[in-house]
Amino acid sequence: MALSQETIDIVKATAPVVGENAEKITSRFYPIMFERYPMVKEFFNQSHQRDGLQQKALAGAVVAYALNIDNLGALGGAVEGITERHASLNVQPEHYPIVGECLLAAIAEVLGDAVTPEIANAWGEAYGFLAEILIGAEKAKYAKTAEKAGGWNGYKSFKVIKKVKESASITSFYFEAEDGTPIISYDSGQYISMKLDLGEEQKSVRNYSLSNWGGKYLRISVKKDGDFSTHLHDKINEGDCVELNAPYGVFKLAPGEGAVVLVSGGVGITPMLSMLNQLSKNESTREVSFLHGTQNKDELAFEDEVKALTEKDNFSYEVSFSDEGKKISIDDLKKASNNVKETDFYVCGPVGMMKALCSDLKSWGVADENIHYEYFGPSGTLS
């Protein structure tokens, strides 16, 4: 059912005041929801709650929806990213009324008497309309995933068949399905969601990029940084089982014949290594340059694997160590692409690095469709 014109008009008219208070609203939304429905806490990374990233991301999404409520086509890319993330967390239709109730409660609490019954009803209708769009898209994704060989929905038990220390801070975990089903196919660059019991009220969930492609196992490579990853490093060993959801994510190799430059920093190497595996194993004829930056040799992961994957004449590999005063710059990207602006650039690493490189690429004149990046955390932007 389409939104009424009255609802569209009210939401657009009130969007500026909601926008001015968006982070206040989302900062109240999460405590309200966690108090009323504590069972949903497992869907949210609590470290992102503490540093405000989740609140900021949701505020941006709410405002973008309100401003484009009469032109939802402009939000196509954002909707795809949201539904992929929701699918990775196994979000279900029954979760949407919880969010709607608590979001409207937060709006009413922050804006007070300014929220008339007409305004509350309009925002409630607008939220319900968006929820139906997301639910429909997620239903289709779940069905598509379940239809794949080895596919499944929700969380499923996987056994750790190998655990390998890759660098001073990164360890890889190799998984096979405990029930013996084959490994599901996925796009390089995608991630899986893992659920662990850390001894808290609810189990905790984190997303990790897959660091391989086309193998007989799933592999993630995790930097020890925070309670969840520390538990993985210290407590999960070969033979143990963990709960995994199927691979999802919009960070993928774009089809084409032109050159590809893969740029990573630190543990941002994980989705890039997956892409490099796909390009190399498929005998790609594209010119492929892999640029990786890390602190020092102790932190350098996958050196032998990357060298083996880049032995072909049309592949190249270069490492920069920040402790030696070398960081990847726009000049390195220009050199790697032979100064061809139509090259596809893929970037993943620390936010500061990604902001600088993506900004420099745009200033150089590279089109947005040729700049691809993966943001580890709530759906963020580099603006």
UniProtKB/TrEMBL annotation:
Gene3D superfamilies linked to this entry: Globins, Nucleotide-binding domain of ferredoxin-NADP reductase (FNR) module, Translation factors
Residues passing through the membrane, by range: none
InterPro entries registered for this protein in UniProt: Cbr1-like_FAD-bd_dom, FAD-bd_FR_type, FNR_nucleotide-bd, Globin, Globin-like_sf, Globin/Proto, OxRdtase_FAD/NAD-bd, Riboflavin_synthase-like_b-brl
FAD-binding FR-type domain mapped to chain residues: 153-254
EC numbers on record: 1.14.12.17
Cofactor dependency: heme b
Reaction(s) catalysed (UniProt annotation): 2 nitric oxide + NADH + 2 O2 = 2 nitrate + NAD(+) + H(+); 2 nitric oxide + NADPH + 2 O2 = 2 nitrate + NADP(+) + H(+)
Swiss-Prot/TrEMBL keywords: Heme, Iron, Metal-binding, NAD, NADP, Oxygen transport, Transport
Signal peptide: none
Organism: Lentisphaera araneosa HTCC2155
Entry keyword Transmembrane: no
Top-level lineage group: Bacteria
Xref: PANTHER family: FLAVOHEMOPROTEIN (PTHR43396)
GO MF: FAD binding; heme binding; metal ion binding; nitric oxide dioxygenase NAD(P)H activity; oxygen binding; oxygen carrier activity
Protein name: nitric oxide dioxygenase
Family designation: In the C-terminal section; belongs to the flavoprotein pyridine nucleotide cytochrome reductase family. Belongs to the globin family.
Keyword match GTP-binding: no
Entry's Gene Ontology BP terms: cellular response to nitrosative stress; nitric oxide catabolic process
Domain spans labelled Globin: 2-139
